[in-house]
Amino acid sequence: MIVIIGSKEETHSLYMYAKIRSMGHRVCLLDSRKYPKNISIDWSPTENKAKFKIGDDSFSGDDIEGIYWRWYYGIPYEKVSNSDDAVNSIIYRERTCLMSSVLCSLESKSYNSIQAVELHQKKAYQSFLLAQNNIRIPKTMITNSPEEFIDFCKKFNKNVIYKPVRGGAYTKKVSGEDFTLEKLQRLEKVPIQLQEFIQGVDIRVFAFESGEIFPAKIAAKSVDFREDTSAKIEPVILPDKVCEDCIKILKLFGLKYSGIDIRLTPEGEYVFIEANPAPMFIHFENVTGFPISDTLISKLKA
Ligand SMILES: Nc1ncnc2c1ncn2[C@@H]1O[C@H](COP(=O)(O)OP(=O)(O)OP(=O)(O)O)[C@@H](O)[C@H]1O
Ligand SMILES: [Mg+2]
Question: Whole-model pTM?
Fold first, then answer.
């Protein structure tokens, strides 16, 4: 059995579900929002024995060959007791603890594991790890101080981008408007991530810990390549050192595969931006012809 963590509303979950099924393999979708109504889990951590029932599918932990982690919705907070919020919070915590614990125990079969996904939620710490391990990333400052913001921008001659500390919004270049009193005062409420702007083109690399590397250049017209949906995508060949660094990053972050973002400067320097633990790939695969889903499925079946 291959388990997909995602939902019927999510494109990549559905794509992988259909593809794995068409290969004649057992596959099911684990939509965590459906626990415990439509999902049951019985787990003995001491015996390392688990039984799952997801919709009409029943299987044991040993039956699971691989887990494709695409989108984890968590466990919704539910008003089981109308009168007592403390009881509802305890129920929520109990459900969440079981689900996340059992997923942690399946780390070795998971592409990627809950541990790696949770580490990615600490993006600033990941930047620290990369810098500590001599991987070139943009010079970075995370601050909620208007003075630090102004100092950092001065240092890089306003050639600076800002983006969320945790991610989830497009990267923007700092402009004159960002220095108004109103904007600067907003900073006092929430930290922002500032980076030197890396001039150049984007490279997205799908890298697997076993060494398969699929890199392509994305010639976007926007600062954040995701904003230019018509950007041309073309396979490229990376220097050995960059491929080695990609594998080093996977090891550092406990990733079995990743969609790694790099900027290549006009001077030929490769600057690492981010390693995504559950990257989208359908469009990239269609355009480049790289066998990303086939490689992933071959690992899940192993
Ligand atoms: N320092 C930088 N210089 C130039 N471009 C950058 C820089 N940082 C990010 N970008 C552009 O923005 C894109 C998104 O950056 P990044 O993945 O760090 O953002 P994020 O907010 O973490 O995104 P996510 O929503 O994936 O979590 C990069 O792939 C690149 O195109
Ligand atoms: Mg990103």
Answer: 0.95
